Amino acid sequence: MRRTAALLVAVLGLAAVGCEGDDEQSSAPQKVTTTRVQVVEGLGREGGFDPSQIYNRLAPGVVTILSVFDAGASILDEGGEGGQGSGFVLDGEGYIATNAHVVTGDDGGRAEDMFIEFSDGNRVRAEIVGVDPNVDVALLKVDPEGLELTPLRLGVSHRIVVGEPVAAIGSPFGERQSLSIGVISAIDRNIESLTRFQIGDAIQTDAAINPGNSGGPLLDAQGRVLGINAQIKSQSGGGEGVGFAIPVDAVRRSLRELRGDGRVSYGYLGVQTLVLWPQLADRLELDVRDGALIQEIEDGSPADKADLRPGDDEIGFQATPVRTGGDVIVAVDGHPLSRRDDLADEISAMSAGDEVRLEVVRDGKHQTIRVRLGQRPPGSG
Hints:
Elements: E1 6-7, E2 36-37, H1 51-58, E3 62-68, E4 82-89, E5 95-98, H2 100-103, E6 113-117, E7 123-125, E8 127-132, E9 137-141, E10 148-149, E11 165-170, E12 178-192, E13 198-205, E14 217-219, E15 225-232, E16 243-247, H3 248-261, E17 267-268, E18 271-275, H4 278-283, E19 292-297, H5 302-305, E20 313-317, E21 320-324, E22 328-332, E23 335-336, H6 342-348, E24 355-362, E25 365-372, E26 374-375
Parallel strand pairs: 1-15, 2-10
Antiparallel strand pairs: 3-4, 3-6, 4-5, 5-9, 6-7, 8-9, 11-12, 11-14, 12-13, 13-16, 14-15, 15-16, 17-26, 18-19, 19-22, 20-21, 22-23, 22-24, 24-25
């Protein structure tokens, strides 16, 4: 079985994949479709958490995804080139969100055939609209005619708090429409993507996430999608209370661009940095307490062309190697950097070709440097 979940790899923002209607009416006969779209109202009591209600209303919007990587083989063949994961309906047009690793192989190649299985037993062929390996997200589409679709509402992940109850629905080990519940165990985690760039602001939960849950939704008390379940950290290969979801805020932009262009363009600066903490700032005799200390700059990168400076000496401090003497980036376009992922979040929110204004501290003096961002390079590792 090809990837059914990412094990021990530490990744989220789901796009509002909206629909635009056509106000122009034609005199030609209209084709009648049998698509039904269930509108899901708000769930849960005020401040309450009702898992059974969440499940009964939203499970029909969660699907099982079957990927075939060898067109001549069956996904049911023993040792066949297939994989299985989860996903969820985004709208009445048949768009479905899932993880990129559910529909791509170990070599990054896309599945040759895709099938979506709904809760009522309907199984239909799907196409891959686009894949974003940087946030482990894929957008699929099915022909909605004849289907009863239950779109899930997208929430926001930047307001969640540790301890908040959550529900996960998916197909662990192929067991369709399974519910698990838990809480938000931690926020602002870093997990691995399918490239060499990490995904920040990931959500950690103790809701059981197992192989096959990948691509399914992590839901709040009102039934809104907070993230896409993506990974588990496990020594046994099963769920041990440490699961991770890609935050919905991180994937929104991804799905929007995948629907429009089939790909996502991320801005690229080309630096490796170390986030300051108070004792390190004191040790380096800096007059700032927050920021990103540049450790390395990639040759030929936008940062290199803008003459940003890396550290040229190295010390050991609190069991951490630190290259000193480089620029400290303290703000991006006027937005102060105070968290570990702030610089990466600011840059990745932009596109190749955008100009960014960096406030840096160099030799004790504040200055502004303008950089035109490049295209984030592909590749893994």
